[in-house]
Specification:
seven-stranded mixed beta sheet; globular; 7 strands; alpha+beta; single chain; Nucleoside Triphosphate Pyrophosphohydrolase; 3 helices; 164 residues; disordered C terminus
């Protein structure tokens, strides 16, 4: 009898701070309206950094420019049926420009919010994941790693190898 191989679901997040406030999204989930950093799933052929840029644009209409790797996080949750899922989140910190005029937000995203750390802390019961507050705390205390800490080998991105 073979066991199914355990594999966490890989997500990315953009932690964006400006003038003491963090950019969050309010989104519809199975548990109701929740707050999250701009985040989403890594898609085939994407590097984690490219996925964070894409997700931030889709969810906030702002172009995200990663400056550092914030951290790599594991979290577990249960869905409505009680099924356990483990999430591996690769979070980046950086800056974002103004929202692009006329660009619609992803389905399910209600609005973007700029919140202070105190407001984020006070709203933890509405967070999509405990990683929302953890990433903000790590950012506040200055945790940063070089962008080169996460490497995406060309074969993982679907590129053909040069046999040389």
């Amino acid at each position: 009898m073979s066991k199914a191989r355990w594999a966490p679901r890989v997500t990315v997040a953009a932690v964006i701070e400006q003038d003491g406030r963090y950019l969050l999204v309010e989104e519809h989930t199975a548990e109701g309206l929740r707050l999250n950093t701009p985040a989403g799933h890594l898609e085939p052929g994407e590097s984690p950094q490219d996925a964070a840029v894409r997700e931030a644009l889709e969810e906030t209409a702002c172009v995200f420019v990663p400056a550092a790797l914030l951290g790599v996080y594991l979290a577990a949750s249960h869905d409505a049926e009680g099924e356990a899922t483990t999430w591996l989140r690769i979070a980046y910190s950086g800056t974002a420009g103004a929202p692009q005029p006329g660009r619609a937000l992803d389905a399910g995203i209600v609005r973007t919010l700029w919140l202070t750390p105190e407001e984020i802390c006070a709203s933890q019961e509405r967070h999509r994941s405990p990683l929302v507050w953890r990433c903000v705390q790590d950012h506040q205390r200055g945790q940063r790693f070089g962008l080169d800490a996460v490497q995406a080998h060309a074969s993982a991105l679907g590129f053909k190898q040069n046999p040389a």
